[in-house]
Design brief:
The complex is a heterotetramer, with two copies of chain A (about 290 residues) and two copies of chain C (about 260 residues). Helices cover about 70% and strands about 10% of the residues of chain A. Chain A is α+β, with helices and mostly antiparallel strands. A four-stranded antiparallel sheet of chain A has the order 2-3-1-4, covered by helices on one side. The chains are: A alpha+beta (about 290), C alpha/beta (about 260). The complex binds adenosine-5'-triphosphate (2 copies) and magnesium ion (MG) (2 copies). One adenosine-5'-triphosphate sits at the interface of chains C and D.
Chain lengths: ~290, ~290, ~260, ~260
Amino acid sequence: MLGHGSDLPFERDPLARFLPWLIAFMAYLAVLALAGVQVLSTTVGDWHSDLNGSLTVQIPAAETAEDDQANVGKVMDILLDTVNVSHAEVVSEDRVVALLEPWLGDKDIARELPLPQLIDVNVRQDRPLDFDILKTRIEDAVPGATIDNHGVWLRHLVQLIRTTEIITVVVLALIGLITAGTVVFATRTGLAIHHDAIELLHIIGARDSYVAWQFARRALLLGLKGGLIGLVFGAATLFALGQLAARLQGTMLFEHGLAPHHWAVLAIVPVTVALIAMLTARITVMRSLTSML
Amino acid sequence: MLGHGSDLPFERDPLARFLPWLIAFMAYLAVLALAGVQVLSTTVGDWHSDLNGSLTVQIPAAETAEDDQANVGKVMDILLDTVNVSHAEVVSEDRVVALLEPWLGDKDIARELPLPQLIDVNVRQDRPLDFDILKTRIEDAVPGATIDNHGVWLRHLVQLIRTTEIITVVVLALIGLITAGTVVFATRTGLAIHHDAIELLHIIGARDSYVAWQFARRALLLGLKGGLIGLVFGAATLFALGQLAARLQGTMLFEHGLAPHHWAVLAIVPVTVALIAMLTARITVMRSLTSML
Amino acid sequence: MGSAEENQFVARFEGVALRYERGPEILRDVSFDLKSDSFYFLTGPSGAGKTTLLRLLYLSLKPTRGSAAVFGHDIAKTPRDRLPDLRRKIGVVFQNFRLLEHLSVFDNVALPLRVAGIREEDVRRDVAELLTWVGLKDHVSVPTPTLSGGQQQLVAIARAVVGRPKLILADEPTGNVDEAVASRLIHLFQELNKLGATVVIATHNHSLADRLGYRRFNVDGGRLWSETTSDTASPRAVAGGYRRDMTAIGNASGTGAA
Amino acid sequence: MGSAEENQFVARFEGVALRYERGPEILRDVSFDLKSDSFYFLTGPSGAGKTTLLRLLYLSLKPTRGSAAVFGHDIAKTPRDRLPDLRRKIGVVFQNFRLLEHLSVFDNVALPLRVAGIREEDVRRDVAELLTWVGLKDHVSVPTPTLSGGQQQLVAIARAVVGRPKLILADEPTGNVDEAVASRLIHLFQELNKLGATVVIATHNHSLADRLGYRRFNVDGGRLWSETTSDTASPRAVAGGYRRDMTAIGNASGTGAA
Ligand SMILES: Nc1ncnc2c1ncn2[C@@H]1O[C@H](COP(=O)(O)OP(=O)(O)OP(=O)(O)O)[C@@H](O)[C@H]1O
Ligand SMILES: Nc1ncnc2c1ncn2[C@@H]1O[C@H](COP(=O)(O)OP(=O)(O)OP(=O)(O)O)[C@@H](O)[C@H]1O
Ligand SMILES: [Mg+2]
Ligand SMILES: [Mg+2]
């Protein structure tokens, strides 16, 4: 199917040597962005489900366990009495310890501290909650208790990461566009450079598809080459980052690495890039040729 | 100086329309990377000075303040007795509260907790410390006291950010290389396409510098155009990110935004890119031409 | 258009006019028929429109006015995707050769066959045979820019005839060779003509056109008229008509405009 | 090399040989002088090496062996950055014109002046004058691909002479025009010769070369010899030597190899 080689002097234009590297760079960025977006969305998904409860009530440790129980009881009564609260649940001591652990560096230290009681509260999304009234009621019931929009900073962090995610997707789309754009322009350059040769092919009796295939085949090969180079470099970079992230185990960033199905998605990059390149080239050529006689 | 226009048919090759966008993309990435690296290095610089002490001793809160004092005294004696310790200092309650605050969400809650005593210990970098002996001695002196490699996770985070920084610098270098590479190949393509015209110019009596200037001038203009486009988009993106980061105030990420001198560095990007493009083009042409007669 | 007519006439032009973009009319009201198996010369001063007329015949231009039919198909009305089939029946020798410089002599000559999807072994045999015949046997695999002007002209001619076209259009095919070689080349065209091809040769070489007694079309001032010469070579009175001063050459197209 | 000699001889070739890369020797032991203010024809069969010899003269090739001096400078030994100055004293008409297709007729002709850094107003005056003179006044601002073959040849000639070169090299300058125009073009070269330029014209047109009684160099089989014809046109016996069969043309370079 590749026939006797190309009728057009592609070897002579250095674009052929350059294009794969440009495509490799694009594929590299695509691989990193795709990996990043996958890790982030898994992580944020987890956090998000953690954050279903949108309020936290914190009750300072009392002298005795019984007092603790009593305080918790009072707050729970108030909460369950509030219409908009869909669910309220005391956070187990283990989880409180786990939450403090990365900060204090050691589970044992955390356990030795007189821990506050935490209550996770879920609020119905559909109705507004009068936060101030609830706050006053709880503070009256148990002096020293605080009610808190659940982890504002964490929420912000999630928001930041979501934004990063969106930026990544935009970057990904941009990469696709730039790859296609590169191929369009490389093809147009090719058409311009080889204009006379193409005209000659036509006069000799070549069909548009014959000419277009010469460009498409080349774009496919260059795209595949570039995509694979990019994938290899991308995978190497990800592996290095993964090693580093592994050392950070226990902190909440990077709880999840890349699962096998994530890697599979990455492997699609070179194929996609090559197909984008081929189709773009073919369409560009077929379009341009109709304006020639 | 621009004379009567170009003798070479640059308008006809679509590369001229494409190159600025490619360069713009590169400049965009450069601007983002440069901004990121500046913010990170400022932030990490701050953290790093916080982390001079490499050990932390933590003494659980005792029943009374006097007991706390006694425990701290005992540990301090042991530490100051150890040859390799260069400095040991009790961390003020305020700082302990500040450390816990982002986690518990509220200064007041932290103050209500019976706080452990923390001692920051600086160890001489030049001599190894027998960590196990020190640990045993302290644990014997004050039961329940723990000694801890200072903020392992924070250290790891700093390391990760340092790595990110290095990656960014590598990416920056890569961008420079790719820009130069793009120009080299665009120029070589130009030389190949216009080979006959250039040979003709030579035969007619043109000097190499006459030909090179045609390419260099074009690269300068295209590079400047691309660089400016990239800077504009980059600045817009940074502004958007800055707005977002502002909402995260109080969490330790992004304590510092971009200072004016940081923006000045970013403004250099298009100029640098344009100069890289021009010089690369000129050098490429001058080199290639010497091989022609 | 009936099949009979299609067989009898290779091309029929009726009141054809042509202008390039916003330029003046280069050809005006040009009418002629090319009969199958005939041999024609096309003469006229520089800039008169010989190349333009050939371009119409090899379907690289569409007439601005009038009807131009090639192999029974009106050029202006034939859909784009039907053109390749018509073009494969036409062989063209361009005034400036138009060889593909990156291809070897062999690949240049093989191009029309490959484009038509001929089997590679047939391509190889046909091309090798033809190249031997025109005397380029030793230059089969060199790139064309390393050939002299005359050798390139031979390659261009070989490429034009390798596909056994029904219509051969040659633009100044003897401009880069001396008289002796020119005669041999004309001989080749005559042989192909005898084998059933219609041949049209545009040339400045009046002595050549005069010597051979073929029908001759003459373009000047945008008009075309035909002159049948006798079968013997005869110095022709009309030759004086070409003795125009140099300014007139440059302005030939301007003349056509008024 | 003394200044006197430099003035007397525009070019001196001593035992020059040339081969392209790994090819056979195209020229072998070629020696000749070009005197100032003289007029020469260069003839020889297709593929003999006429264009190659001209390329040596316009410094686009270096000899493989021997010494070739142009304007008193040995080509092989002249540093690259000295070449532009020499080249500005040479005007070349290429066999295939080599016009820059994206530039107008005007800009093409202006090129040698601009490259030499001539002031734009002088450029404009000189070029306009010359274009009027060769009859391209009405085509000044059109792109060259829209010109006919003959018109392009005129542009190529105008570009070659616009810089008032001391040495004019023309490769087949009359290949695309008819006899009458060819005579006028030769006349132009004769005028320039009288104004002090040395002219070398490579041509297949033997009748032309015969008619004018100039010194004639003949290349064949890699060798060059000179023949001074009488001042009157005389059909020359040597013409028979060119009647070679077509195979020989294709293999001309092969002949040089053995
Ligand atoms: N592509 C074009 N666009 C505009 N004008 C053109 C184009 N091609 C040719 N012309 C004009 O058409 C006229 C006829 O040109 P053409 O090439 O047909 O002449 P010709 O008879 O072949 O001349 P020659 O013998 O010199 O080759 C000329 O005046 C030329 O300037
Ligand atoms: N660039 C090149 N590389 C290799 N061989 C070449 C090159 N240019 C010319 N030749 C060979 O050199 C020989 C002489 O070529 P040249 O063009 O000088 O002939 P010429 O006398 O000008 O012929 P013509 O009258 O056909 O133009 C030919 O055999 C040709 O194949
Ligand atoms: Mg013509
Ligand atoms: Mg030649």
